Amino acid sequence: MDEADRRIINALQTGIPICDHPYAECAAELDMTEEELLRRLASLREEGFLSRIGPMYHAERLGGGLALVAMSVPLEDFDRVTEQVNAFDEVAHNYERDHKLNMWFVLATEKTERVGQVLSEIEEVTGYPTYNMPKIEEFFVGLRFEV
Amino acid sequence: MADLSAREMELVAAIQGGLPLVPRPYAAIGKKIGMSEQQVIKQLADWQADGTIRRMGVIVRHHELGYRANAMVVWNIPDEQVQEVGRLLGKQKVVTLCYQRPRRLPDWPYNLFCMIHGQDRDVVLGHVETLAVLLSEQCDLSGLDFKVLFSRRRFKQRGACSIKEKSVTPQQIAGSC
Protein backbone atom coordinates (compact mmCIF):
# COMPACT_ATOMS: atom_id res chain seq x y z
CA MET A 1 0.00 0.00 0.00
CA ASP A 2 1.43 3.36 -0.98
CA GLU A 3 0.58 6.97 -0.36
CA ALA A 4 -2.01 7.09 -3.15
CA ASP A 5 -3.75 4.02 -1.71
CA ARG A 6 -3.88 5.65 1.69
CA ARG A 7 -5.41 8.80 0.24
CA ILE A 8 -8.03 6.66 -1.50
CA ILE A 9 -8.92 4.80 1.68
CA ASN A 10 -9.20 7.97 3.73
CA ALA A 11 -11.26 9.84 1.16
CA LEU A 12 -13.59 7.05 0.10
CA GLN A 13 -14.52 6.02 3.63
CA THR A 14 -16.18 9.38 3.92
CA GLY A 15 -18.17 8.80 0.81
CA ILE A 16 -18.61 7.87 -2.80
CA PRO A 17 -21.17 10.11 -4.49
CA ILE A 18 -24.46 8.76 -5.79
CA CYS A 19 -24.33 10.06 -9.35
CA ASP A 20 -23.71 8.88 -12.94
CA HIS A 21 -19.91 8.76 -12.76
CA PRO A 22 -19.03 8.43 -9.06
CA TYR A 23 -15.52 7.07 -9.52
CA ALA A 24 -14.62 9.78 -12.03
CA GLU A 25 -15.67 12.39 -9.45
CA CYS A 26 -13.62 10.77 -6.71
CA ALA A 27 -10.65 10.41 -9.04
CA ALA A 28 -10.74 14.10 -9.90
CA GLU A 29 -10.69 14.98 -6.19
CA LEU A 30 -7.75 12.64 -5.70
CA ASP A 31 -5.93 13.98 -8.71
CA MET A 32 -5.70 10.68 -10.56
CA THR A 33 -7.47 9.13 -13.51
CA GLU A 34 -10.63 7.09 -13.17
CA GLU A 35 -8.78 4.05 -14.55
CA GLU A 36 -6.09 4.32 -11.92
CA LEU A 37 -8.64 4.67 -9.11
CA LEU A 38 -10.58 1.62 -10.30
CA ARG A 39 -7.41 -0.41 -10.65
CA ARG A 40 -6.20 0.55 -7.17
CA LEU A 41 -9.60 -0.15 -5.60
CA ALA A 42 -9.63 -3.59 -7.18
CA SER A 43 -6.22 -4.46 -5.78
CA LEU A 44 -6.99 -3.04 -2.31
CA ARG A 45 -10.03 -5.26 -2.24
CA GLU A 46 -8.05 -8.19 -3.58
CA GLU A 47 -5.40 -7.75 -0.89
CA GLY A 48 -8.04 -7.75 1.82
CA PHE A 49 -7.79 -4.14 3.01
CA LEU A 50 -11.33 -3.38 1.89
CA SER A 51 -14.18 -5.61 2.82
CA ARG A 52 -16.62 -3.95 0.51
CA ILE A 53 -17.44 -0.93 -1.58
CA GLY A 54 -21.05 0.08 -1.17
CA PRO A 55 -23.70 1.23 1.27
CA MET A 56 -23.46 1.02 5.03
CA TYR A 57 -27.03 0.64 6.20
CA HIS A 58 -28.91 1.61 9.30
CA ALA A 59 -30.06 -1.93 10.13
CA GLU A 60 -33.23 -1.03 11.97
CA ARG A 61 -34.43 1.16 9.12
CA LEU A 62 -34.14 -1.82 6.81
CA GLY A 63 -36.51 -3.55 9.21
CA GLY A 64 -33.86 -5.83 10.67
CA GLY A 65 -32.94 -6.71 14.22
CA LEU A 66 -29.54 -5.98 15.71
CA ALA A 67 -28.32 -6.95 19.16
CA LEU A 68 -25.12 -7.09 21.13
CA VAL A 69 -25.08 -10.21 23.24
CA ALA A 70 -22.69 -11.38 25.94
CA MET A 71 -22.14 -14.78 27.50
CA SER A 72 -20.03 -16.05 30.35
CA VAL A 73 -18.42 -19.27 29.19
CA PRO A 74 -15.96 -21.34 31.25
CA LEU A 75 -12.64 -21.71 29.45
CA GLU A 76 -12.90 -25.48 29.18
CA ASP A 77 -16.16 -25.08 27.29
CA PHE A 78 -15.18 -22.09 25.23
CA ASP A 79 -14.33 -23.81 21.97
CA ARG A 80 -17.48 -25.90 21.92
CA VAL A 81 -19.70 -22.89 22.64
CA THR A 82 -17.88 -20.76 20.06
CA GLU A 83 -18.55 -23.36 17.43
CA GLN A 84 -22.20 -23.68 18.40
CA VAL A 85 -22.78 -19.92 18.50
CA ASN A 86 -20.97 -19.23 15.24
CA ALA A 87 -23.01 -21.90 13.51
CA PHE A 88 -25.97 -19.52 13.55
CA ASP A 89 -26.09 -17.52 10.33
CA GLU A 90 -27.42 -14.53 12.25
CA VAL A 91 -24.27 -14.27 14.37
CA ALA A 92 -21.99 -11.60 12.98
CA HIS A 93 -18.80 -10.60 14.73
CA ASN A 94 -17.89 -12.74 17.67
CA TYR A 95 -15.06 -11.72 19.98
CA GLU A 96 -13.49 -13.16 23.05
CA ARG A 97 -12.93 -10.32 25.53
CA ASP A 98 -11.22 -9.81 28.89
CA HIS A 99 -14.04 -10.14 31.40
CA LYS A 100 -16.15 -12.69 33.22
CA LEU A 101 -18.58 -12.04 30.38
CA ASN A 102 -16.02 -13.29 27.92
CA MET A 103 -17.93 -13.90 24.71
CA TRP A 104 -19.44 -10.95 22.84
CA PHE A 105 -21.27 -11.29 19.58
CA VAL A 106 -23.59 -9.33 17.37
CA LEU A 107 -26.80 -10.73 16.01
CA ALA A 108 -28.13 -9.31 12.79
CA THR A 109 -31.51 -10.70 11.80
CA GLU A 110 -33.80 -10.01 8.91
CA LYS A 111 -36.76 -9.43 11.24
CA THR A 112 -36.68 -7.92 14.72
CA GLU A 113 -38.65 -10.81 16.26
CA ARG A 114 -36.00 -13.30 15.26
CA VAL A 115 -33.50 -11.94 17.81
CA GLY A 116 -35.37 -13.49 20.74
CA GLN A 117 -35.79 -16.80 18.95
CA VAL A 118 -32.11 -17.09 18.10
CA LEU A 119 -31.13 -16.28 21.69
CA SER A 120 -33.44 -19.00 23.04
CA GLU A 121 -31.97 -21.47 20.59
CA ILE A 122 -28.42 -20.50 21.57
CA GLU A 123 -29.23 -20.92 25.27
CA GLU A 124 -30.76 -24.29 24.59
CA VAL A 125 -27.92 -25.67 22.52
CA THR A 126 -25.06 -24.26 24.62
CA GLY A 127 -26.62 -24.58 28.07
CA TYR A 128 -25.53 -21.08 29.09
CA PRO A 129 -27.58 -17.90 29.53
CA THR A 130 -27.25 -14.97 27.15
CA TYR A 131 -27.22 -11.31 28.11
CA ASN A 132 -28.92 -9.27 25.44
CA MET A 133 -27.88 -5.63 25.42
CA PRO A 134 -29.71 -3.95 22.57
CA LYS A 135 -28.96 -0.31 22.01
CA ILE A 136 -31.15 2.18 23.81
CA GLU A 137 -29.67 5.25 22.25
CA GLU A 138 -27.05 5.88 19.62
CA PHE A 139 -24.68 8.76 20.27
CA PHE A 140 -22.18 8.20 17.52
CA VAL A 141 -21.49 5.81 14.66
CA GLY A 142 -18.31 6.69 12.85
CA LEU A 143 -16.34 3.56 12.11
CA ARG A 144 -13.92 5.46 9.97
CA PHE A 145 -10.28 4.46 10.11
CA GLU A 146 -7.59 6.89 9.10
CA VAL A 147 -4.52 5.31 7.48
CA MET B 1 -39.20 3.69 6.63
CA ALA B 2 -39.35 0.31 8.33
CA ASP B 3 -40.78 -1.90 5.63
CA LEU B 4 -39.28 -2.01 2.21
CA SER B 5 -41.32 -2.95 -0.81
CA ALA B 6 -40.40 -6.04 -2.80
CA ARG B 7 -38.87 -3.79 -5.45
CA GLU B 8 -36.77 -1.98 -2.88
CA MET B 9 -35.59 -5.27 -1.43
CA GLU B 10 -34.51 -6.31 -4.92
CA LEU B 11 -32.32 -3.24 -5.08
CA VAL B 12 -30.83 -3.97 -1.64
CA ALA B 13 -30.10 -7.52 -2.76
CA ALA B 14 -28.61 -6.36 -6.08
CA ILE B 15 -26.17 -4.02 -4.37
CA GLN B 16 -25.14 -6.16 -1.45
CA GLY B 17 -22.26 -7.79 -3.22
CA GLY B 18 -20.87 -4.28 -3.55
CA LEU B 19 -20.75 -1.47 -6.03
CA PRO B 20 -19.14 -2.74 -9.25
CA LEU B 21 -15.80 -1.22 -10.22
CA VAL B 22 -16.96 0.14 -13.54
CA PRO B 23 -17.39 3.77 -14.63
CA ARG B 24 -21.21 3.68 -14.22
CA PRO B 25 -21.78 1.33 -11.27
CA TYR B 26 -25.36 2.42 -10.60
CA ALA B 27 -26.29 1.61 -14.20
CA ALA B 28 -24.71 -1.83 -13.77
CA ILE B 29 -26.71 -2.45 -10.56
CA GLY B 30 -29.91 -1.33 -12.26
CA LYS B 31 -29.32 -3.60 -15.21
CA LYS B 32 -29.41 -6.67 -12.94
CA ILE B 33 -32.96 -5.90 -11.80
CA GLY B 34 -34.45 -3.96 -14.68
CA MET B 35 -34.14 -0.49 -13.15
CA SER B 36 -32.75 2.51 -14.94
CA GLU B 37 -29.59 4.18 -13.73
CA GLN B 38 -31.63 7.23 -12.71
CA GLN B 39 -34.11 5.13 -10.72
CA VAL B 40 -31.27 3.48 -8.83
CA ILE B 41 -29.61 6.82 -8.14
CA LYS B 42 -32.85 8.39 -6.94
CA GLN B 43 -33.71 5.52 -4.62
CA LEU B 44 -30.23 5.36 -3.09
CA ALA B 45 -30.10 9.13 -2.70
CA ASP B 46 -33.49 9.08 -0.94
CA TRP B 47 -32.22 6.39 1.42
CA GLN B 48 -29.13 8.37 2.14
CA ALA B 49 -31.24 11.45 2.82
CA ASP B 50 -33.54 9.66 5.26
CA GLY B 51 -30.71 7.81 7.02
CA THR B 52 -31.48 4.30 5.80
CA ILE B 53 -28.05 4.40 4.19
CA ARG B 54 -25.58 5.91 6.61
CA ARG B 55 -23.03 6.34 3.89
CA MET B 56 -21.95 5.03 0.53
CA GLY B 57 -18.27 4.34 0.43
CA VAL B 58 -15.50 1.89 1.10
CA ILE B 59 -15.73 -0.29 4.18
CA VAL B 60 -12.31 -1.30 5.43
CA ARG B 61 -11.02 -4.30 7.32
CA HIS B 62 -9.63 -2.33 10.22
CA HIS B 63 -7.56 -5.22 11.54
CA GLU B 64 -5.75 -5.56 8.22
CA LEU B 65 -5.07 -1.82 8.21
CA GLY B 66 -3.15 -2.13 11.45
CA TYR B 67 -5.89 -1.34 13.97
CA ARG B 68 -5.18 -4.41 16.04
CA ALA B 69 -6.17 -3.23 19.48
CA ASN B 70 -9.91 -3.18 19.66
CA ALA B 71 -11.31 -2.08 23.01
CA MET B 72 -14.88 -1.96 24.14
CA VAL B 73 -14.91 0.59 26.92
CA VAL B 74 -17.93 0.38 29.19
CA TRP B 75 -19.01 2.98 31.72
CA ASN B 76 -21.43 2.94 34.62
CA ILE B 77 -23.01 6.38 34.42
CA PRO B 78 -25.92 7.59 36.55
CA ASP B 79 -29.08 7.36 34.41
CA GLU B 80 -29.79 11.07 34.66
CA GLN B 81 -26.39 11.89 33.17
CA VAL B 82 -26.07 9.23 30.51
CA GLN B 83 -27.35 11.45 27.69
CA GLU B 84 -24.92 14.22 28.43
CA VAL B 85 -21.97 11.86 28.86
CA GLY B 86 -22.89 9.84 25.76
CA ARG B 87 -23.01 12.95 23.61
CA LEU B 88 -19.67 14.13 24.93
CA LEU B 89 -18.00 10.74 24.42
CA GLY B 90 -19.47 10.43 20.93
CA LYS B 91 -17.79 13.69 19.95
CA GLN B 92 -14.28 12.52 20.81
CA LYS B 93 -12.10 11.74 17.85
CA VAL B 94 -10.82 8.40 19.16
CA VAL B 95 -14.31 7.00 19.70
CA THR B 96 -15.59 5.00 16.72
CA LEU B 97 -19.00 4.00 18.15
CA CYS B 98 -20.97 5.08 21.20
CA TYR B 99 -24.23 3.62 22.48
CA GLN B 100 -26.36 3.52 25.60
CA ARG B 101 -27.32 -0.07 26.44
CA PRO B 102 -29.22 -1.67 29.33
CA ARG B 103 -27.48 -2.77 32.51
CA ARG B 104 -27.79 -6.47 33.36
CA LEU B 105 -27.64 -6.41 37.13
CA PRO B 106 -26.08 -7.82 39.18
CA ASP B 107 -23.50 -9.10 36.69
CA TRP B 108 -23.22 -6.07 34.47
CA PRO B 109 -23.64 -2.52 35.82
CA TYR B 110 -22.42 -0.68 32.70
CA ASN B 111 -24.85 1.33 30.60
CA LEU B 112 -22.67 3.32 28.21
CA PHE B 113 -20.52 1.57 25.61
CA CYS B 114 -17.92 2.95 23.26
CA MET B 115 -15.39 1.39 20.94
CA ILE B 116 -11.83 2.56 20.54
CA HIS B 117 -9.72 1.04 17.77
CA GLY B 118 -6.00 1.66 17.90
CA GLN B 119 -2.65 0.39 16.70
CA ASP B 120 -1.72 -1.10 20.05
CA ARG B 121 -3.00 -1.54 23.57
CA ASP B 122 -0.90 1.13 25.20
CA VAL B 123 -2.11 3.78 22.82
CA VAL B 124 -5.72 2.73 23.39
CA LEU B 125 -5.25 2.74 27.18
CA GLY B 126 -3.81 6.23 26.91
CA HIS B 127 -6.94 7.34 25.04
CA VAL B 128 -9.15 5.77 27.69
CA GLU B 129 -7.27 7.60 30.44
CA THR B 130 -7.75 10.90 28.62
CA LEU B 131 -11.46 10.20 28.19
CA ALA B 132 -11.84 9.34 31.86
CA VAL B 133 -10.25 12.63 32.89
CA LEU B 134 -12.43 14.53 30.45
CA LEU B 135 -15.63 12.92 31.73
CA SER B 136 -14.71 13.44 35.38
CA GLU B 137 -14.03 17.10 34.80
CA GLN B 138 -16.69 18.10 32.32
CA CYS B 139 -19.54 16.02 33.69
CA ASP B 140 -18.62 16.30 37.34
CA LEU B 141 -18.35 12.55 37.81
CA SER B 142 -16.20 11.42 40.68
CA GLY B 143 -15.10 7.83 41.21
CA LEU B 144 -15.85 6.97 37.60
CA ASP B 145 -16.67 3.26 37.22
CA PHE B 146 -15.50 1.87 33.88
CA LYS B 147 -13.82 -1.15 32.33
CA VAL B 148 -11.76 -1.75 29.20
CA LEU B 149 -12.51 -5.02 27.44
CA PHE B 150 -9.91 -5.71 24.81
CA SER B 151 -10.68 -8.39 22.29
CA ARG B 152 -8.50 -11.46 22.63
CA ARG B 153 -9.63 -13.41 19.64
CA ARG B 154 -11.91 -12.73 16.75
CA PHE B 155 -13.89 -15.79 15.76
CA LYS B 156 -16.18 -14.61 13.13
CA GLN B 157 -15.86 -11.63 10.98
CA ARG B 158 -18.86 -11.86 8.83
CA GLY B 159 -22.12 -13.44 9.53
CA ALA B 160 -25.32 -12.73 7.86
CA CYS B 161 -28.81 -11.56 8.04
CA SER B 162 -30.69 -13.01 5.24
CA ILE B 163 -32.38 -10.73 2.79
CA LYS B 164 -34.01 -12.87 0.16
CA GLU B 165 -31.60 -15.72 -0.44
CA LYS B 166 -28.57 -13.56 -0.22
CA SER B 167 -27.04 -12.16 2.85
CA VAL B 168 -26.16 -8.77 4.24
CA THR B 169 -22.81 -8.85 5.94
CA PRO B 170 -22.82 -7.15 9.31
CA GLN B 171 -20.18 -4.80 8.04
CA GLN B 172 -22.85 -3.33 5.83
CA ILE B 173 -24.62 -2.44 9.02
CA ALA B 174 -23.04 0.16 11.16
CA GLY B 175 -22.90 -0.31 14.83
CA SER B 176 -22.22 -3.94 14.71
CA CYS B 177 -19.03 -4.04 16.71
Describe this structure in words.
The complex is a heterodimer of chains A (147) and B (177). Chain A is α+β, with helices and mostly antiparallel strands and 147 residues long. Chain A has 2 domains: 3-46, no CATH class; 59-132, Alpha-Beta Plaits, CATH 3.30.70. Chain A has helices spanning 3-14, 22-30, 34-46, 78-86, 114-126; strands at 50-57, 65-71, 91-97, 103-109, 131-132, 137-141. In chain A, a hairpin with a 5-residue loop joins strand 3 and strand 4 (103-109). Chain A is elongated and about 55 Å long. Chain A starts with a helix and ends in a 6-residue tail after the last strand. Chain B is α+β, with helices and mostly antiparallel strands and 177 residues long. A 4-stranded antiparallel beta sheet of chain B has the order 3-4-2-5. A two-stranded antiparallel sheet of chain B has the order 6-7. In chain B, a hairpin with a 2-residue loop joins strand 6 (161-163) and strand 7 (166-168). The two termini of chain B are 24 Å apart. The model of chain B is unreliable at 159-177 (pLDDT under 50). Strand 3 of chain A pairs antiparallel with strand 5 (145-156) of chain B.
